[in-house]
Amino acid sequence: MLEVVVLGVLAVAAASLDAVLADGPGPFREAARLLVLERRTTPQADRLLARIGAIALPLAAALAALVVPFGGHAALDGRVGVVWFNAMEVVGWAAVWLVGWGANSAFALAGGYRFIAQGLAYELPHMFALITAALAAHSLDLRAIGAAQGGLWFGVWMPVAFAVYLLSALAMAFWGPFGAPLGADIAGGAALELPGPDRLVFLAGRYGLLAVAAAVAVPLFLGGGGGPVLPAWLWSLVKTCAVLALLVWTRRRLPVLRMDRFVQAAWIVLIPAVLLQMLVVAVVVVD
C-alpha cells in the first residue's frame, strides 16, 4: 500500500504546484474552505448517486495505484497491470457521469456527458498506446515493460505512442486542454452542484488520477526505475515527478479544446498515427 501513499503525496504536490502557477490558495487552505461550505442541493437530486460518483473517483485512482511499480515492486501482482490500470480508468468515466447525472442539473449533466464524449474520443488511442508498449515487452506487467527498456527507453523509439499517452493522461483527468467537463462555459460542469466536502473528495480524485497517470508513464515509456547511481525506487519517483510537473503545467498554458474538434482530431489523426506506430513496433519485434 506504500504506492498508494506515495501517489497520494504526489497528488497533493500537484495541487500545490497548480495553486502556485495560478497564484491561488494552497491545497490545504482550499480544503478547509470546502469543508465549511454550507451544503446545498437541487430539487429531486439523487444525492446517493452523486456521492457514489464523488467517492468512486479517488477510489479508482487508489486502485490503479496498486499496480504501479516503484523500483520493481508493486502492491498487487501486476501480471495484467496494463489491463487493471485501464479498467480503473473506466471506473473514473462512470464516476464523473454519476456526479453529473445525480445533481439533476442541466449544467452538471452536460459536464457528465462531455466527459463520456471525451472518453470515447481518447480511449481508443490510449488503449493502442498501452498495447504498443506491452507488445514491445511481450508482457502486460508494468514491471516487465519497464525492465525491457534496459537499452533504449520506449519513449525514444515510440514517440507517437508516448505523446498519445500523455494526451490521454490529460483527458483521463479532464485536465488542461481537456477540462471541458468542468468548463466555465457551463458554470463548472459536472461538479457544479456538489457540496463542499463532496467536491473536495471529487477534486482529490482528479489530482489522484493525474498522479497515477504520470506514474504509469514511467514503466511504460521512461525505463521504469532504470538509471545510474540512484536506487531504482528513487529513479521511478524522480521520473514520475517530472512527468507530473509537465502535466500540471499544461493547465495554465494550453487553451481548453472544443469537444467536437477533439473528437474529430482523435478519430482522424490520433488513431491512425498510433496504429502506424504499433505496426512499426510489431515489425521490429518480429524481426
Describe this structure in words.
The chain crosses the membrane at residues 48-68, 80-100, 120-140, 152-172, 207-226, 232-250, 262-286. GO terms for molecular function: NADH dehydrogenase activity. The chain is mainly α. It has one domain (2-286). 70% of the residues lie in helices and 0% in strands. The protein has eleven helices and no strands. Helix 4 runs antiparallel to helix 5 (106-137). The chain is globular, with a radius of gyration of 19 Å. It starts with a helix and ends with a helix. The model has no long low-confidence stretch (mean pLDDT 89).
Structural class: mainly alpha
SSE arrangement, N to C = HHHHHHHHHHH
Poorly predicted tracts of residues:
none
Separation of the first and last Cα atoms? 40 Å
Strand content: under 5%
Shape: globular
Number of strands: 0
Query: What Rg is obtained from the alpha carbons, in whole angstroms?
Result: 19 Å
Q: Helical amount among residues, as a percent range?
A: 55-70%
Q: Can you tell me the number of structural domains?
A: 1
Q: Sheet bearing the most strands, described?
A: none
Mean pLDDT: 89
User: Total number of helical segments?
Assistant: 11
Protein name: Respiratory-chain NADH dehydrogenase subunit 1
Subcellular location: Cell membrane; Membrane
GO molecular function, one term: NADH dehydrogenase activity
GO cellular component, one term: plasma membrane
